[in-house]
Amino acid sequence: MPRPARLLHTALLLALLAPAGCGWLGAAIYFFRPPVTTKAEFRFKGKVAIVIEAVRSHEESPLFSQALYDAFCENLTAAKAAIDAVPLEKFQRLRQDNPDFASWGIQRIGHALGADQVLYIRLARLQFQEFPGAPLIEPRVAASVIVVGVSAPADKPRLWPEAIEGRELSLSRQTRDAADPRALDEEATKMGREFAHIIARFFHDYDSEEPLKKER
């Protein structure tokens, strides 16, 4: 409903409820009050590389990373804060084509990808099972997130957040049976998307009372 029409309807409803007493009127005022908007902590500028790396190489999950990348971009687009993101495949090829990639700094990676800024997501932990072949899937992820300016001074490359360790985030999803051979792939995709919903909120305005999206 357009905002002017919504305000008119609200005013009429409040007028009708006024004779019913303060309790009903107070509840109506609370329910129909304007949304409280939480502003973005950071807004991207220029071309952005989204770099997702696991601390432990055996925890790398292409499905998780692609789902995170896709959902992150979708969230910002839906919130009218779309970014010009470097395709994730370009980063993956860069890493595969350079044997010394592990020694590269974030600014060097961003420069090689033609980016102005880098959203760097460092996965401290990415676990789906306690051990390979375990009967249960127990999805967990913990990561630190920072934004680096590719052309920023080398001694002060971080644009967001102020904390040196970055913004530390985590997510655990419900345990499920691993009997279905598709379960692991499904969970990698769902957790990647759900984690993206958490990260994206720092980069666009949103209604403070709107719950985070869950992947069922």
Radius of gyration, whole Å: 22 Å
Q: What gross morphology would you assign?
A: globular
Overall average residue pLDDT: 90
Distance between the termini: 29 Å
CATH architecture of the largest domain: 3-Layer(aba) Sandwich
- What is the quaternary state of this protein? single chain
Q: Please indicate the percent range of residues in DSSP E strands (runs of 2 or more).
A: 15-25%
Q: List unreliable stretches of 5+ residues.
A: none
CATH topology of the largest domain: Rossmann fold
Give an account of the 3D structure:
By secondary structure, the chain is of the alpha+beta class. The chain has two domains: 3-34; 39-207, Rossmann fold (3-Layer(aba) Sandwich), CATH 3.40.50. It has six helices and ten strands. The chain has helices spanning 3-17, 22-32, 62-78, 88-97, 106-112, 183-200, and strands at residues 37-38, 47-54, 84-85, 117-127, 136-137, 140-149, 158-160, 167-172, 176-177, 206-207. The strands form three sheets. Strands 2, 3, 4, 6, 7 and 8 form a six-stranded mixed β-sheet that branches. The chain has a two-stranded antiparallel sheet with strand order 1-10. Helix 1 (3-17) runs antiparallel to helix 2 and helix 3 (62-78) packs parallel to helix 6. The chain is globular. The two termini are 29 Å apart. The model has no long low-confidence stretch (mean pLDDT 90).
